[in-house]
Structure formats: C-alpha cells, structure tokens
Design goal:
Number of strands: 28
Number of helices: 9
Distance between the termini: 55 Å
Strand order of the largest sheet: 5-4-1-6-11-8-12
Largest sheet: 7 strands, mixed
Radius of gyration: 21 Å
Shape: elongated
Strand content: 25-35%
Structural class: alpha/beta
Helix content: 10-25%
C-alpha cells in the first residue's frame, strides 16, 4: 500500500532560538552526529515510506547539504525517493502555517499515486513505530489519526499546546488549544495519518473557505464530522523549542536507556549522513566521563557530561563540562568551559574560562572566535 510522506522543516520559523538563526530547525545538530530531520525521515523509511517531500521555507541550505539525494536513507530512487519542496507562495506571500504550506504543495500531493499520507513536523526527537500507528489507523477506520504523547506541559513550546481528550475507543472527543495550560496532558506531536484523497478534500475546502490553521480550522471544527482518532506514543519524546530544551535533549542522549530506546530498536534504526571521518584520537592525558564523543575528534583534555560533535579538538589541559560543542570546535589548552554551547567552526583561543549555568547557558555563534 503506497504511502506519501510530508515533513514540515520549519513551520515555527518566527520562534527561532540561537541554534536556528542561520539554519532551519530540521537541520539543527543533535547527539554528536545527527540532525533533527534524521528522526522523522528514519521513522518513515522504517515504515516502508519511500516517497517523501520535505517542505521548506527559509534557511534550508544546510538542510539540503545534509540530506542531499537521500541516499543515506535509501531514498535516492528513480521513482519516488526524496524531494525538496521549495517555498512557493500561495497568493502574494510565503506561507506561515501548515495548512497554507499544504495549499502551496497541492500539485505535488495530487501527482502522487499514494493512497495514504503521513505528515509530521521535525522539532522533536523520538523513534516512533509508524507501522503500528498505520495499522491502528486502518483498524479504527479513521479519517485522521493524530499522534500524541503524554507529558508535562511547561509553557515553553513554540505555540500553544494542542491537548486531546480521548474516549475509551481512542477517538478524540475534545481538542483544547491553550497557551496557559500547565500540567500533564495528551499533547499532539504534530504528526498525522490520512488518505491522500481525503487530504486533498481538506485542502480544497481550506482554499474555498480561506482556512489557515490545520489544528483550529480542520481538526477542532470537525471532531463530530470526521472520525479523528489519537495514537499514543509511549516512548521517549524530546521536544526542542528553545536553547534550554535543546541542551536538555542532548543531555538526555547521554543516558544509556534513552540512547538504547532511540537508536537500538530492532528494525527501526536512525540514519544520518555518513561522513567517513577518521576515528577519534585520545591522548594519554585525556579524561572522559559520561559523554558522547563523535568520530574525527582529537581529545587531549578532560570531557565530562558533554556532547562533542565531529572534528572537534580539545587541547591539553582544557576542561569541558556540561557542554555541547558542535562540529569542528577548537578549545585551546588550559581553557575551562562549563554549560557552554558552541555552534560549528568555533574557536575558543583566548578565553580561559567560560562558566554558565542551567538557566544561563552560554552560546557561541557559528564561526565565532573568542
């Protein structure tokens, strides 16, 4: 049964944080060697989805560099495969919501011969069994299946949380969109399954009525008109919405149980771009504790509770703790970093001490020299 995948790469571009000012959130680096888009791409491929469109809007050069032809996800194909969908405008402006984005891509959706469509954002990290979600959708005879996760709502999300009340059969009977809600709730993870023809019908209706919001104008208005079900994801869910949540998710990846759930699921690997870097070199003086260190690094100093990306060099006597150093960062000898996040190609040469905290993370922009 043919399925089309659609991934929204940066719907929330107005609510950027430091690491996304020069890149779409889809290409935001995580875990030493991954990008956020690796997770939805891999989830779809693992479920047998081999025709995927990535809906772009702005700052997507690094995204294109990362995913390329899609060969690292087995998506470099003559038919289907991976397609970058440029930000066509609907009317005289570029879209600002998912529903407007879908209006812009109606020709792409219509040209597909798929029977079903998976749609998802990519600001979250999770390994979802889309195959089980799809079976659930079929078994329920649903018009739309919305994936959700039960977790604490803190108020830091890009947008107001979408909270589901679900009956015993799994049908969504109430959708609440409340930016002031705090507490545990069944929160949408902005992932949906439906028939392609049904999606086309919804887009056509949205064009005629000038609807703009998928959640408010489509889902909330039609809970009684359509069979809208919820599928609960019970595993790890990392929601990246600001610099602090970005830090927290990377620190979660240091935990063995989180890594095992995300990266060692039978038949559900998470793929990324292969760079064929040399193995990391550790000097006799290197001290490593509770950290993720990618390939291609040279470690001569001390690294504790940190995530170190490819090509990073930490020189003799340097101490890096509770930090995230992105690709090709250089830390000079006898430098101390604590609660610091460096973007790509940063050089810490003159600063001998940079001390932040959980509530006062220090961020160094791409290419910065300090």
């Amino acid at each position: 049964m043919a399925v089309l995948g659609l991934i929204f790469s940066n719907i929330h571009d107005k609510e950027v944080f430091e690491a996304t000012r020069e890149r779409t959130i889809a290409s935001c680096p995580v875990g030493g060697r991954y990008r956020l888009i690796d997770f939805p791409l891999s989830n779809m491929v693992n479920a047998g989805v081999h025709h995927i469109g990535v809906v772009t809007k702005s700052n997507y050069q690094s995204l294109m560099d990362h995913i390329g032809s899609g060969k690292d996800w087995d998506l470099a194909r003559k038919k289907g495969g991976l397609q970058i969908l440029p930000p066509y405008g609907f009317g005289d402006q570029v879209y600002s919501t998912r529903l407007e984005a879908l209006k812009c891509q109606i020709d792409f959706i219509e040209s597909s011969n798929a029977e079903y469509v998976f749609l998802t954002d990519c600001y979250h990290i999770c390994n979802i069994d889309y195959t089980s979600a799809f079976k659930y959708h079929i078994e329920k005879g649903a018009d739309i299946t919305c994936l959700y996760h039960e977790h604490e709502i803190t108020g830091n999300d890009f947008a107001a949380p979408k909270l589901f009340d679900v009956n015993e059969d799994g049908r969504i009977v109430k959708l609440t969109i409340d930016k002031n809600y705090r507490g545990v709730g069944n929160a949408s993870i902005d992932t949906w399954i439906m028939k392609r023809e049904f999606l086309m019908q919804l887009i056509d209706e949205a064009i005629k009525t000038n609807y703009k919001s998928f959640n408010r104008d489509i889902l909330a208005r039609n809970l009684n008109n359509y069979k809208i079900y919820g599928y609960k994801h019970n595993g790890y869910y990392g929601n990246i919405v600001d610099l602090n949540s970005y830090f927290d998710v990377n620190m979660d990846l240091i935990k063995k149980d989180v890594r095992s759930e995300l990266f060692y699921q039978d038949g559900r690997a998470i793929y990324t771009k292969v760079r064929d870097s040399a193995p990391t070199k550790y000097s006799n003086d290197a001290v490593i504790e509770n950290s993720i260190i990618a390939d291609g690094c040279i470690i001569e100093g001390t690294v504790k509770n940190s995530v170190i990306f490819r090509g990073t060099r930490i020189k003799k006597g340097a101490v890096v703790e509770n930090s995230i150093l992105m690709q090709d960062t250089i830390v000079a000898s006898n430098t101390k970093l604590d609660y610091v996040i460096t973007d790509k190609n940063v050089k810490i040469l003159n600063k001998k001490e940079m001390i932040g905290g959980l509530e006062e993370l220090i961020y160094v922009k791409k290419g910065g020299v300090l």
